[in-house]
Design brief:
The structure holds 2 protein chains of 2 kinds. Chain A is mainly α. Chain A has helices at about 1-10, 15-30, 40-65, 70-90, 95-115, 120-140, 165-190, 190-200, 205-210, 215-240, 250-260, 265-285, 290-305; strands spanning about 155-160, 160. The two termini of chain A are about 20 Å apart. Chain B folds into 2 domains: about 1-80 and about 170-260, P-loop containing nucleotide triphosphate hydrolases (Rossmann fold); about 90-165, no CATH class. In chain B, helix 7 (about 185-200) links the parallel strand 7 (about 170-175) and strand 8 (about 205-210). In chain B, helix 5 crosses helix 6 (about 155-165). Classes of the chains: A mainly alpha, B alpha/beta.
Chain lengths: ~325, ~260
């Protein structure tokens, strides 16, 4: 097993081989709708959706090393922004995206600004509280539709072509997932991405090297929030209905699980984590309610034997 | 001209006076050191200088500006770099990436530029890389640039720390026990390196050290502290013959006690 992953790692090193693999995978993803039932498409769309959410949280948890237990809140901010603007004010869906980006970035600043001076454990508690506050606020406000949420959110159209089939959304979410990978990759290999890793590895040393740790963390937080917000916009129009129950604490934990399971800070790992998250309960649907138990056991086994995640760490 | 001027510096933790009324200066272009027995407060002085501790009194002037109560990253931006007593590398990152951390405060690409890979961002990345490779070359570690930092030998990890500090383009370099854990050959190389940094890069050096041989060989001015107070100051010869210093390090001779 170790030998196999070594040879694979060796083969994956040259840029050319990696590009080849990526193109093949993208082609497969593009062709899936040609030979699948609506059920498979529905599940795969969900996979791409979670890929985007997990990559967003990966910026906060994986790159910057900040434990965030309330990520669903940002996802909720995006979904509600689109939901409210389209159904109450009749705003075109595509115009709600920049608004949702601003709102989720503001939410990130609002929660991150005062709390990022705290060290990790306290931050986890505050984010947990924030996640719950957002959900409860959404449950009690009139504009968010209270406990029953918003229904009848209009499906978007592009150049007069309405997106209303699952195939359409499959491609939309695939595109979003690819975009999320691209942005994550570029950020990771940039001055900002390196700064996140410095702060994660050793906060004091990073500060001694002239890195403003609070500002760097805030950037991670806000960018992660924007990923969640954009995913939320598209989630709202795909489902056409959102309710506070979609953004429960379990949702945050699930996304975090995907990140940790696949391997924090590693894009391919996080993608695998998102796949495992969505596919596992589907594949073992036959087990009925037992499947969550099996899921939990598999997770424990992975945590015990591969604490750094499924994807191997780089060696040299 | 004094690059660093410390006036009546005081630091106390819950009534315990760690540093008392300490004053000294470090001249521009010199190699100066701070020595003292274990627990004398040397590292605390360093932490006050670099902004990690807030002094309870006194003033620190660096390059004619007061740096008291400034954040550590601001002080580094102003041109003061440090190394740590216990290695504080970014362990799972490559050697080059470690050194690149020093250039962070000298570059400015933001997230948007990075995602779009603008021309300015690419130029800046190339500059960062080039400068950091020069720093690695300077400490003789260019060949190890792509290795993971924690896989290097201890002495080499120390050199990564120096390269990283040099990458911040400092005016003053603070070395916290640079010889700790080094063998005889490595200490010899360290002495050469310290002189080379001062002579070729014209960076002022201020170090804390236990290793007397090294201190006496490299420093032009030595400040000795004990229990947070200055007990002597001067060049190597004056320090070696100062009775107070001998007392602090070796204790009083028996007949004097009797």
């Amino acid at each position: 097993m170790a030998n196999f992953s070594d040879t694979l790692g060796e083969w994956l090193r040259p840029q050319k081989n990696r590009m080849f693999i990526l193109l093949v995978l993208a082609a497969i993803a593009m062709l899936i709708p040609l030979a699948s039932s609506n059920y498979v498409l529905e599940v795969m769309t969900n996979v791409w959706f979670y890929v985007m959410l997990c990559l967003g949280l990966n910026i906060v948890v994986g790159y910057a090393g900040l434990l965030d237990l309330g990520y669903a809140a940002f996802f909720a901010v995006g979904a509600y922004t689109t939901g409210i603007l389209t159904s109450h004010f009749g705003v075109n869906f595509w115009l709600t995206i920049p608004v949702a980006v601003c709102c989720s970035a503001c939410a990130g600043l609002l929660i991150g600004g005062p709390t990022l001076r705290l060290r990790s454990d306290y931050l986890a508690i505050v984010t947990l509280g924030f996640g719950e506050i957002v959900r409860i606020v959404a449950r009690n406000l009139e504009i968010t539709g209270g406990a029953s949420g918003l229904i009848g959110i209009e499906r978007p159209s592009i150049f007069g072509f309405q997106l209303n089939q699952i195939v359409h959304f499959y491609y939309v979410f695939l595109l979003l997932a690819i975009l999320a990978c691209f942005v994550s990759y570029r950020l990771q290999h940039s001055r900002m991405g390196r700064a996140w890793q410095y702060v994660r590895e050793d906060e004091d040393a990073a500060e001694a090297m002239g890195i403003n740790r609070v500002a760097v963390k805030l950037y991670a937080y806000v960018i992660g929030a924007i990923f969640g917000g954009v995913a939320g916009c598209f989630f709202a129009v795909k489902m056409t209905a959102i309710s506070p129950e979609t953004f429960m604490f379990q949702q945050s934990v699930l996304i975090l699980l995907g990140v940790v399971l696949g391997g924090m800070g590693k894009i391919p790992g996080v993608i695998i984590g998102a796949f495992a998250l969505v596919l596992f309960p589907e594949v073992f649907r036959g087990l009925g309610s037992m499947r969550m138990l099996v899921f939990a056991i598999v997770m424990l086994i992975i945590m015990l034997y591969r604490p750094e995640g499924i994807w191997p760490a780089k060696k040299s | 001209m004094a690059l660093l001027e410390v006036n009546n510096l005081a630091l106390s933790f819950a009534g315990l006076h760690v540093i008392k009324e300490l004053s000294f200066t470090v001249e521009e272009g010199s190699i100066a050191s701070l020595i003292g027995p274990n627990g004398a407060g040397k590292t605390s002085v360093f932490n006050c200088l670099t902004g990690f501790y807030k002094p309870t009194g006194g003033d620190i002037t660096f390059n004619t500006k007061s740096i008291v109560a400034k954040k550590p990253h601001k002080i580094t931006q102003m041109g003061m770099a440090r190394t740590f007593q216990n290695l504080r590398l970014f362990k799972s990152m490559s050697v080059l990436e470690n050194v690149m951390s020093g250039m962070h405060c000298r570059s400015k690409a933001g997230p948007v530029g990075s995602v779009l890979r603008t021309a300015a961002q690419q130029r800046e990345e190339a500059e960062i890389k080039e400068f950091c490779e020069t720093c690695l070359k300077f400490v003789g570690l260019l060949d190890a640039r792509d290795r993971i930092a924690s896989n290097l030998a201890y002495g080499d990890q120390r050199r990564v720390e120096w390269a990283r500090a040099l990458a911040t383009q400092p005016k003053l370099l603070l070395l916290d026990e640079p010889a700790a854990g080094l063998n005889h050959d490595e200490k010899q190389q360290l002495i050469e390196l310290i002189n080379k940094i001062r002579d070729e890069l014209t960076i002022t050096i201020f170090l804390i050290e236990h290793d007397m041989g090294l201190v006496m060989k490299v420093s032009e001015k030595i400040t000795v502290i004990d229990y947070g107070e200055k007990i002597a100051q001067g060049n190597a010869e004056e320090i070696q013959n100062n009775p107070k210093v001998i007392e602090a390090y070796l204790g009083k001779e028996e007949d004097e006690i009797g």
